[in-house]
Amino acid sequence: MSDTTERLHMSGIVKRFPGTVALDGVDLSVRAGEVHCLLGENGAGKSTLMKILAGSYQPDEGTILLDGEPYRPATPHAGLAAGIAVIYQELDLLPDLTVAQNLLLGRAPRLGPFVRRARRAGLAREALDRVGANFPVTTPVRELPIAARQLTAIAKALTADARVIVMDEPSATLGESELARVFEVIRSLTAEGRSVIFISHRMEEVMEIGHRATVLRDGRTAGVFDLSSTGPGELVAAMIGEAKELVRPTAHPAPEGEPRLSVERVHVPGLLDVRGIEVRPGEIVGLAGLGGAGRTTLLRALFGDIKAQVTARLDGVPLRPGSPAAAVRAGLALVPESRKEQGLMLGLSVSRNAAIAALGRPPWLMPGRTGRRITADALTALGVKSAGPGQLVGQLSGGNQQKVVLAKWITRGRIRVLLLDEPTRGLDVGAKADLYRQVRHLAGQGVAVLLASSELNELTANADRIQVLYEGRNVAGFDPRVSPESVIAHTVITGATP
Amino acid sequence: MTTSIGSAMTAAVKEAGGGRSRRGTDLIVKSNLLLVFLALCVVASLLAPQFLTGRNIANLLQQSALTGIVAIGMTMVVLTAGIDLSVGSVAAFGGMTVALLMGSGMPVLPAIAISIAVGAVFGAIMGGLSAYLGLPSFMTTLAGLTAIRGLTYLLTDGKPADGGGSEAFQLLGGGFIGYVPIVGIVFVAITILAALVLRGTTFGEYVYAVGSNKEAARLSGLPVRAVITTVFAVSGALAALAGVLLTSRLTVGQPTAFSGLELDAIAAVVLGGTNLFGGRGGVFGTFVAVLLLSVLRNLCNLLGLGSFFQMVVTGLILLVALILNMLIERRGARA
């Protein structure tokens, strides 16, 4: 366990942006050798606080002490030099350069104008060894799996000899076993006396890895908790303030009748071979599996986004999704994995984003006005919080952005099958519950829903049935009302039913 | 925040319910280019009294119209995050085709229609290669620039083609209604038409969507490739139209015409505030920018400054406008 020497002390931090106060007097105290979790709903101020710590933003008020010394970095470079390393969710690695080049970017050992490549490889190797990574340092980052990239980013933080390492949702892109690997590294870091600030939305992880937690709410510190004596319930309560309805399994009658979507086989050579999945109208079928088990591939194949042999029927009619456009015409809708890269046009307004899939029919005129008219209902029903339909969608919070993606399909209408790929990634607890309520509402109108998620507890809470994918095959089906989560988790990890 | 003049104009008109700060910024951006343009006109009329004569303004409009027509097509391509380097060659080819067709005895209207259609086909081929095979349009149209210019020379072995067109045809490129040149009217009409298509139709909305995020547009079920192919076809057709108009004015088809046109067109598009990476901008900005560049050239001519000097000034103005736009965009983004 950590000692009680204070490594970092931020007090009374205030940060104003034009028209809004992002941080309104935040205190954060991190001890040496501690894993300190930073919790809070989206928009609570976590990112702003970490950007101030890193030196990207300057606070308007407040003081920061690092090991007792005043610390006020003017640039991220100064922050790094002072021993603060931030590993962002979008790892800032250069994909075309090798691991060694990335690790020692700008600091490569030199002889005159020449890089000492062997020496650099040696240093990089040492850095990778410290995080227990065994892939070669000459690999281009592009070719690494996501977990290996994460380890590379951590190793890079270590080459700077950081005293405080901030990890912004490292688990969002990791599977369970990869996460265990990262956790081991975190533990060895704190054992060396380094401090880790860990940002995550997943309570289990926070409880497993964290020593203490600071909860932010609306730009203020809502509480500091010792995690050995605090339950997840208290943390969530502190995050959301008043008691909001949490996601709990509700007793739905199992939908009956003919399946709406009946998948006989979806085959992508070498990647995926899924057989026999059926979804009835009004039913939410969850797709569970480790990262790379084929959840995304299955959804993309059904949506006509990748070449695949699909033998499936939609309301009894053979489904041949040759392209996303054909799939959409057939009544399929996809909420893709990455809302920023695949779901939204960030430079366009809320209403233009929400209307875009519905404009392919008459009237063909005045898309701006038509768009605002036809999206108004969906945006209101989903409770999208924005300054108005003309606001740029890139300026909304993650939860509201995801609602706009959903609004796009609701506005289009006539959805028969809704495919959701990690719809709650990066959303806070309240936004997740909200999103699932909307999905359930859609299902209630007869839509068949396929929901892929790496969060098993979300699947058990929201799906009527769960299909487990393992290495490209669906290995088992569960009824979450009957099967305990531990049993399903076992199948997810091992591919076999206990 | 948008830097585009065109979108700013229409947004200010149409999005009466939009955010106040956004409208404010848009107004500044919009007036930015317009104010520079007007200021330049005032300066021009002070420095050179003959600037404000009807004859000179008519001249000015006639000179800028052809580049302007091409720049309108270029704007649509750039809005989808593409670029069309082949417009100069396609325009020359169009001018030659119409001359040769009429020289062989074909009536005027079919000859014009065929020439423009050929331009559209060239554009569709280059755009289609880019859309369906995923090749960068920079490369497919660069190939087009060379190959189509070569084809143009091959038509007559490099010699000008005598159109022998009727007087009606010559009126099209060189005629005036009062003081207003007909090509100027064509330019204005095409600008308005393009604005209506971009802001008033589903296709126009698709153009912005594809330029803003191609992947999201595709996964929303939009016909992304068809949209891209179409804007290149439009660009090709408008380039060929410019060629036809030049042939009409000169009464002969010149295979060497329009070299370097693509750079003038791109300069006008960018100066007009359309984002080179797609999704933001519009044709009104391009329209003003075309006139601005033309006034600048005209002013230099009236002052007796050589074309070398003009090139330097044009380049500097472009740079200053870009910096100004960027500063305003930054201010807007922070607000």
TrEMBL record, chain A:
InterPro entries: AAA+_ATPase (IPR003593), ABC_carbohydrate_import_ATPase (IPR050107), ABC_transporter-like_ATP-bd (IPR003439), ABC_transporter-like_CS (IPR017871), P-loop_NTPase (IPR027417). Residues 8-243, 241-496 form the ABC transporter domain. Keywords: ATP-binding, Nucleotide-binding, Repeat, Transport. It holds the Pfam family ABC_tran. GO terms for molecular function: ATP binding; ATP hydrolysis activity. It comes from the Bacteria. This is Ribose transport system ATP-binding protein. It comes from Thermocatellispora tengchongensis.
Automatic annotation (TrEMBL), chain B:
It is found in: Cell membrane. The chain crosses the membrane at residues 27-48, 68-101, 108-129, 135-155, 176-198, 226-246, 266-296, 308-328. GO terms for cellular component: plasma membrane. Pfam families: BPD_transp_2. Signal peptide: none annotated. InterPro entries: ABC_transp_permease. Keywords: Cell membrane, Membrane, Transmembrane, Transmembrane helix. GO terms for molecular function: transmembrane transporter activity. It is a multi-pass membrane protein. CDD domains: TM_PBP1_transp_AraH_like (cd06579). It comes from the Bacteria. PANTHER family: ABC TRANSPORTER PERMEASE PROTEIN YPHD-RELATED-RELATED, RIBOSE IMPORT PERMEASE PROTEIN RBSC. This is Ribose transport system permease protein. It comes from Thermocatellispora tengchongensis.
